[in-house]
Structure prediction request, 415 residues.
Amino acid sequence: MAKIVASVNCSHVPAIGAAWDLGKTEQPYWQPVFKGFDYSKKWIADLKPDVVILVYNDHASAFSLEVIPTFALGTGAEFKPADEGWGPRPVPTVHGHPKLASHIAQSVILDEFDLTLVNKMDVDHGLTVPLTLMFGQPEAWPCKVIPLAVNVVQYPPPTGNRCYNLGKAIRRAVEAYPEDLRVVIFGTGGMSHQLQGKRAGLINKEWDNNFLDLLTHDPGKAAKIPFIEYVRETGSEGIEMVMWLVSRGALEDKVREKHRYYHVPASNTALGHLILENESFKG
Amino acid sequence: MTEENPFDDIPGTTLFDAHKSREGYHLNMFCMSMGDAASREEFKQDERAYLARYPMTEEQRDCVLRRDALRLIEIGGNIYFLAKLFYVDGRSVRSVCAAMSGMTDKEYEQMMLDGGRSPEGNRSKSEWAQSA
Prediction:
């Protein structure tokens, strides 16, 4: 059967993608950002997942204000890098896993999570920056990627608790899939940042690090954090962190923290990164 | 009757909710069109004529022409859409954030290098009222 064995959380700041694409990774400003992923690249190369389920948000690339899906699962065969105003990133096309994605869709909808299914969409930095951070610059991405886009642009996004429970439903779905597949789930975005108004540039290191602790050891408590706390403490865009709860819900209650990294700044944002493995997983 | 909104207490922040999204629909859809290279060229040729295609308010139109990001956020703009407008001018979101918070690019970048804007004193409007 298929099995989700681990999760990867990381920020998906567009400037990180630009720094990579322009060969700036060794510059003093960017070197501390990329250094945090040295361990992670080796970890995932050793783990060799067959499929990544990548939870991220679209930033006015595939979805304008014409249609605003709360949860959109990519069931298509491929997803092209989006043109976000300066041409598409020079990264490989993302290949999906339509069979597993369709299976997840049927399973979680019957489990009462009413997803939107998307067969055609371009994927922006929200999805491609985490792939770059974890896999570098291969000719082709080394595994299939199923995109799960969450609306965190227009309030209200789904609650943290809803995200956490969707993660659990995704775990049940994957475990009911008959083919042997090793799956890793990514929860991306965050950490604290605010990109608007007179409070732009807000960063809350203490809150972010407490969230990393909670996510690892007490995810049920993290799932209960109300929206007002995210916005007040971590900035209007810090609310992206609800997406980290989808990935956490897809793991077992007990996990091993394999890697943690935190750095300020990456452009306007606090960069956070966490790798968790199921306690039962004997890599 | 207006709905009570607990987010109104957070200083320097406009929540982009379903109401704001309606208010800014045409403004943001104009910005969305800046994701297309040919449309960017048309806009640059005659900004006012291009904007006339979108039935936004006069104030929204005026703020687009003046690139007043702070006010655009207050009247329905969303930063991910507005970013596409500012990319036309070759400006980064970081530079727009600096302008919105009344800082030069250099001052803002230094603040971020020093750990960002602290949440201390920035959680509630009452804290801003005290320091004013």
Remarks:
- Residues 15-90 of chain B form a domain with the Protocatechuate 4,5-dioxygenase; Chain A fold (CATH 1.10.700.10).
- The mean pLDDT of chain B is 95.
